[in-house]
Amino acid sequence: VTELLGVAPDYVVTLKDKAVQNVVDAVGGIDVETIDEMHRDDAAANLHIHLPKGKQRLNGEQAIGFVRYREPTVARWVGGKPLFHPGTNDPVLLPRSEIRYSKEDGDFRRMKRQQDLIRAVVDEAKKTHNWARLGSIADTSLDQLDTTLKRDQILALAVLYKSAQTDKIVTRTLQGKDGKIGRNYAFLIDREKKRYLVDWLVKGDESAAYKLTVVAVKNGTKTVGAAKSVADMLHTEGGFEAESAGNADAEDADAKSTRIVYSKAVFQGHAERVKQLLGGGQLVKEKAPDTTGVLDKSQELPDITVVVGEDLAGNFARRSASR
């Protein structure tokens, strides 16, 4: 971590194999939300995952499936056992049409669920009936960890962050793409975005956060080029990862007022910065499914959506024309 991020950790926490199951059971289960069904049977890993789409409450065993799922079952099972080609250890594969692919597939989506699990455990541990059992929960947790933190330090941290709102806990995953180093397949990290990530989450530089904040700008008026003009300004003057997303949907096709929409509390400050740069607009917090990390990037929702209304479209059209 030190070599990769240039930051030396003060303390280290390593989860043991059964940590997720035992800690989740210790707090009495957790509430999570999935964006799609997850089905995986893996005999070699002794893994059987069958979770529905939507909000649900998980016990420890189900939580393991929630954080380990990566891809669907690709082998045929008969009578609760995988089917092999005669005389071999090669499984009989399902035809593509029978594989139950999910929006939860992939490494990045799995990392997102692991981050969600941490929030869910914190939320559950903070409930009154669990707060009275804090010492017992801490002891259970310590049994599942290899850590340089001492018990009294963990309890002190629990007290310090008791009032913390989990929807304001910021988590991000290093960005990059699949590639090769020599003959070896590897994940090639986007070094520029890595630097922004460290500057934001470790060094507290909010301006670096803007460079990682995806803003989609839609035109809710008949003023040609309004969305592109706004996106260009947000990128050049605010540093946002902003792009024109074309015309607004039918319900916003004749927008009188500009709307700046965000779904996570952590992006409220960023939305306020967008409003400041625009010189107006209405901030709107909407509940939306968190599609972070989906394989089909066309389904990944932006961090902030700006719907340009008539109140600002003219200003930006004149601004663009003057340039």
Description:
By secondary structure, this protein is α/β, with parallel strands linked by helices. Helix content is 36%, strand content 21%. The protein is built from 12 helices and 15 strands. The strands form 6 sheets. The chain has a 5-stranded mixed β-sheet. A hairpin with a 4-residue loop joins β3 and β4. α2 packs antiparallel against α6 and α10 crosses α12. The protein starts with a helix and ends with a helix.
Which features would summarize this protein structure in a list?
alpha/beta; 21% strand
Specify the number of helices. 12
> Taking all residues together, what is the mean pLDDT?
91
* Helix/strand class: alpha/beta
Task: Give the overall form.
Answer: globular
Physical arrangement of strands within the biggest beta sheet: 12-11-15-13-14
**Cα gyration radius (Å):** 23 Å
User: What order do the helices and strands follow?
Assistant: HEHEEEEHEEHHHEHEEHHEHEEHEEH
Q: Beta-strand percentage?
A: 15-25%
Q: Would you report the number of β strands? A: 15
User: Poorly predicted ranges (pLDDT <50, ≥5 residues)?
Assistant: none
Instruction: State the helical fraction.
Output: 25-40%
How far do the termini sit from each other? 45 Å
Largest sheet geometry: 5 strands, mixed
